[in-house]
TrEMBL record:
<keyword id="KW-0067">ATP-binding</keyword>
<dbReference type="InterPro" id="IPR025420">
    <property type="entry name" value="DUF4143"/>
</dbReference>
<dbReference type="InterPro" id="IPR027417">
    <property type="entry name" value="P-loop_NTPase"/>
</dbReference>
<dbReference type="Pfam" id="PF13173">
    <property type="entry name" value="AAA_14"/>
</dbReference>
<dbReference type="GO" id="GO:0005524">
    <property type="term" value="F:ATP binding"/>
</dbReference>
<protein>
    <submittedName>
        <fullName>ATP-binding protein</fullName>
    </submittedName>
</protein>
<feature type="domain" description="AAA+ ATPase">
    <location>
        <begin position="31"/>
        <end position="160"/>
    </location>
</feature>
<dbReference type="InterPro" id="IPR003593">
    <property type="entry name" value="AAA+_ATPase"/>
</dbReference>
<dbReference type="Pfam" id="PF13635">
    <property type="entry name" value="DUF4143"/>
</dbReference>
<dbReference type="InterPro" id="IPR041682">
    <property type="entry name" value="AAA_14"/>
</dbReference>
<keyword id="KW-0547">Nucleotide-binding</keyword>
């Protein structure tokens, strides 16, 4: 095993730098903490590591940098004990490096049982800066919360944001230029349906569909079925299709349970809760609770569900026409979720799509078409009630094309097109 580690380390160090697309996320290269990157499969975690490695190579001896991907078939099966050969093999190659700082990148580390014990030990005993990635929020967050407590900084990684999508396509963001705005709006119409998985950019609709399906299969079989020993795979697939077709709607496990019983499925409520939880663990779905001052009260209300990328929504959409309202709403959710893990919806007499507490707090409604007075009034009234409840003086209404500023009851509501909102 030591010889294999040495070969993989040397091969990577001898290879030319990887070509990467710059992302907006700022990850420190030197920290007293272990840097953990988590997120859905194929969202760009590995290329973020490559970007950090390229950055380091400008000032650090390439021999001080180690990169290993634990999805490499040559490293299967690998045990906790096998990991002991990693740094010993490295120091056998470069004995003088024991006195120098070494940068160690461990990609998809969740494939090694009890990996966190090894990471904790070498972090505490060797002069290494550690970077780890994984594709399961439960796996990493639970282990970080116990074995790595106080030792790690965790960063969530998502598919490309709209701003990153524009940068990838070399579209200049200048809102004062009509030329630039035209290109931005055209790009938004594509991004709305295609989402932010970089491997789908510029591909034909057929290739995009195949790529999204491959990603879902990876998540279903590698992250869920194999890891949790799921037997009822038909139910899991049906649940994914149901979730993607009902983005932005309230999900009731009791209602789902009754529907599946009527269809003849042998299922329990506990199984439905588990499967939905697994999909969240794999960063495929997110749930949004109602905002209340009491956690107990929050738990008594149904939650909304959203997808990690609009591409999955497009793939599994069951209607003949695009569901623009849900596509818009999902993009706004992801924009807010990148900023904060705390995203809620508000509902009393009226409903508001999103409330994000913090500094600053945000209250946001999404409505594609507000040309009819009744629709505009409904959206405004919801925001006004939400502002009274939360004490906010400002709120936002995201639309397809209208831009405006309203002041009602001394409170300010900004109406903004979605493409422009996503650039804020």
């Amino acid at each position: 095993m030591q010889a294999l580690f040495q070969r993989l380390i040397t091969d990577f160090q001898d290879a030319p730098p990887k070509q990467v697309i710059a992302r907006e996320q700022v990850i420190p290269v030197d920290s007293r903490k272990i840097i953990s990157l988590i997120g859905v499969r194929r969202c760009g975690k590995t290329y973020l590591l490559y970007g950090l490695i390229n950055q380091l190579r400008a000032s650090v001896d390439p021999r001080n940098i180690i990169y290993l991907n634990f999805e490499d078939d040559r490293l299967h099966p690998l045990t906790l004990q096998d990991l002991d050969s990693l740094m010993e093999g490295y120091y056998a190659l470069y004995p003088d490096k024991r006195s120098e700082k070494v940068y160690l990148f461990l990609d998809e580390i969740q494939n090694i049982p009890e990996w966190e014990r090894y990471v904790r030990r070498i972090h505490d005993t060797l002069n290494v800066q550690l970077f780890v990635t994984g594709s399961s929020s439960r796996l990493l967050s639970q282990e970080i919360a116990t074995s790595l407590r106080g030792r790690t900084l965790t960063y969530e990684v998502f598919p490309f944001s709209f701003r990153e999508y524009l940068a990838y396509h070399q579209i200049d963001v200048n809102l004062h230029s009509s030329h630039s705005r035209s290109y931005i709006q055209h790009a938004f119409n594509n991004y709305l349906h295609q989402g932010g998985f970089a491997e789908t950019f510029g591909e034909t609709p057929d290739i995009q569909q195949r790529t999204w399906r491959d990603y879902l299969d990876l998540i279903i079989y590698r992250d869920l079925i194999e890891r949790y020993d799921i037997k009822n795979t038909a139910l899991l697939r049906h649940l994914i299709r149901y979730a993607m077709s009902n983005i932005g709607t309230l999900i009731s496990v009791n209602k789902l349970f009754n529907e599946y019983k009527e269809l003849g499925h042998k299922v329990s409520k506990e199984t439905l809760y588990l499967y939905l939880g697994y999909l969240e663990d794999a960063y495929t779905l997110f749930n949004v609770p109602i905002f209340r001052n009491s956690v107990r009260e929050e738990q008594h209300h149904p939650r909304k569900i959203y997808a990690v990328d609009n591409g999955f929504k497009t793939l599994l959409h069951t209607s003949l026409s695009p569901d623009y309202s849900k596509l818009y709403e999902n993009l706004v959710f992801l924009h807010l979720r990148r900023q904060s893990r705390e995203v809620y919806y508000y509902k009393q007499t009226q409903e508001v799509d999103f409330y994000v507490p913090g500094k600053p707090s945000q209250l946001v409604n999404v409505s594609v078409d507000i040309r009819t007075p009744a629709t505009l009034e409904r959206e405004i009234n919801g925001l006004l009630e939400g502002m009274r409840y939360t004490g906010l003086e400002e709120a936002t209404l995201v639309t397809q094309e209208r831009a405006d500023m309203l002041t009602i009851e001394g409170k300010h509501i900004t109406i903004v097109p979605a493409w422009q909102y996503l650039l804020q």
